C-alpha cells in the first residue's frame, strides 16, 4: 500500500526516521501476523460509563447480561445505539426489547497496534455485527482465530465485565 511504498522509498535512501520504523508491521502480509486467539479477553482494564438518563435502562440491563434494543412501535423498527428519540420520526415513546443475541459479522478490522488500555493486547477484532433484529452494533469479537473471522460469520452474544458490575456486549463465533 501507500505506507509500504513510502517506507521502501525511504529505506532505499537511507532516510527512514525511527518513528516510521515502527510502521513496518503494516506492510507485512496477514499470514505472517499472529493469530487473534483470545482477543482482549477480560484482562483489559476499562472504565465504567456514567449513563445518561435515557441510556440508564440499557446499562442497568447489562448487569443482568441482557442486551436491550430500543423499539419504535409507530414505525415497527429497532434502533441502536441508544437515543432519547426515534431515528425514524424524532418522537419519544420508544420501548425496550431484549435482543436475541444472535447475529452475523457485517464488517470488521483487526487492530494490530493499539494505544492504552488496549496496548499489549493486540491483535484484536473490532466488528460491526448485524443482529437478528436488523440493527448493527460495533463490538469486539472474542475467542476467534484471525483466519476464522469472516464477513457473514454467525456470532452469538457474550459479555465483558466492567468494574462496577455492568458488562459490555461482545460476540464470539456461534
Describe the fold and architecture.
There is one protein chain. The chain is α+β, with helices and mostly antiparallel strands and 174 residues long. It has three helices and eight strands, in the order H-H-H-E-E-E-E-E-E-E-E. It is globular, with a radius of gyration of 20 Å.
What structural category do the secondary elements indicate?
Answer: alpha+beta
Strand content: 25-35%
Strand order of the largest sheet: 6-5-4-7-8
What coarse outline follows from CA principal-axis ratios? globular
Q: Unreliable segments (pLDDT under 50, ≥5 consecutive)?
A: 1-38
The Rg value, from CA coordinates, equals 20 Å
Output mean pLDDT: 82
Number of helices: 3
- Helix/strand order: HHHEEEEEEEE
Helix content: 10-25%
Largest sheet: 5 strands, antiparallel
Number of strands: 8
Give the end-to-end Cα distance, rounded to a whole number of Å: 34 Å
Amino acid at each position: 500500500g501507500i505506507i509500504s511504498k513510502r517506507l521502501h522509498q525511504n529505506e532505499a535512501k537511507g532516510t527512514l526516521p525511527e518513528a516510521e520504523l515502527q510502521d513496518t508491521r503494516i506492510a507485512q502480509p496477514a499470514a505472517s501476523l499472529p493469530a487473534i486467539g483470545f482477543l482482549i479477553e477480560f484482562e483489559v482494564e476499562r472504565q465504567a460509563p456514567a449513563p445518561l438518563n435515557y441510556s440508564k435502562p440499557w446499562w442497568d440491563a447489562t448487569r443482568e447480561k441482557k442486551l436491550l434494543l430500543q423499539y419504535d412501535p409507530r414505525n415497527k423498527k429497532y434502533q441502536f445505539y441508544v437515543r432519547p428519540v426515534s431515528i425514524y420520526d424524532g418522537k419519544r415513546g420508544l420501548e425496550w426489547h431484549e435482543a436475541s443475541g444472535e447475529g452475523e459479522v457485517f464488517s470488521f478490522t483487526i487492530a494490530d497496534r493499539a494505544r492504552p488500555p488496549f496496548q499489549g493486547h493486540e491483535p484484536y477484532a473490532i466488528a460491526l455485527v448485524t443482529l437478528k433484529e436488523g440493527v448493527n452494533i460495533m463490538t469486539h469479537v472474542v475467542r476467534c482465530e484471525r483466519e476464522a473471522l469472516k464477513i457473514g460469520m454467525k456470532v452469538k452474544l457474550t459479555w465483558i465485565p466492567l468494574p462496577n458490575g455492568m458488562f459490555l456486549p461482545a460476540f464470539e463465533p456461534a
